[in-house]
Specification:
Elements lengths: L1 H18 L1 H13 L1 H4 L5 H5 L16 H4 L10 H11 L3 H6 L1 E5 L5 H7 L5 E6 L2 H16 L7 E5 L12 E5 L5 H17 L4 E7 L8 H4 L6 E9 L4 E8 L1 H10 L8 H17 L2
Parallel strand pairs: 1-2, 1-4, 2-3, 4-5
Antiparallel strand pairs: 5-7, 6-7
Helix pairs in contact: 1-2
Amino acid sequence: MGKAIWHRIRLVAYSLRAIGVLAMIKGAVRWIADRELRAVDSGFDARFGTDTNAALTPAEAAIPVARRRGAVMYLPSMDRDLAAMVAALEWPAERLRASTFVDLGSGKGRAVLLAAMRDHRRVVGVELSPVLHAIAIDNLDKVGAAGVLRSPVELIRDDAAAFALPDGPVIVYLYHPFDEAVAAAVVARIHAALAIAPRPVAILYGHPRMQPPWPPDVLGKEGVLRAIAAGDRHTRHHRISWSIWTNAAWLAARTAAAGVELEPDPTAARQADRDRGAARELEP
């Protein structure tokens, strides 16, 4: 009982700092009235005996004090939201198998484990919180013992803003794990890695609730990454949204300038169609 009370107190304190009094009150009323929004249990924990459902504030997760203001409370990714994002990416199966799936701000590891149930070269979770990282390791042991993982998994306790992008095609999963400033630092590292070794990169950005999403120019800075798809899931009072960003157009332009031919990329074709449609709308 005491632990539950302290959790509520910390949740209120976090919400006051993150969104303010009025938005917190409105959000609390809507949350109480919205059963689907409260239902973060997809059956994952019941199936594997894991701990991924319960939310934790940055203070409860023992995020270092210097980084706590830029942190966002832990909320689990929903299985169906991640599945919708991967489907919207439309990478060929061969590229998906060759890709590294990286969850930055991986929390208790649900998205990492869901991704590892698919075919990737490897799946990596990067988490700053020692509390969440320890829970994720325990969850990995339990799901691994069930024999359902198809890709190797690596869990790293590290700062997402300092993480080096792996070689080869990369899918970066971001479930709104930190604030805009940290996100900008992550994007800057992606740009730096691509300047050294151009290759296909995608960002799957999920935005659960409470705080506003990052402005589009955070992920789309300098046009290296462009949004190619977006979707959402509506509950009674809320919208859980997501968007897909890739460097397909940038990569095609860069390789064309170098006189190198690439195999057709469906994401680049979709972006070209979007650009042509936007141009037609501007015609008199």
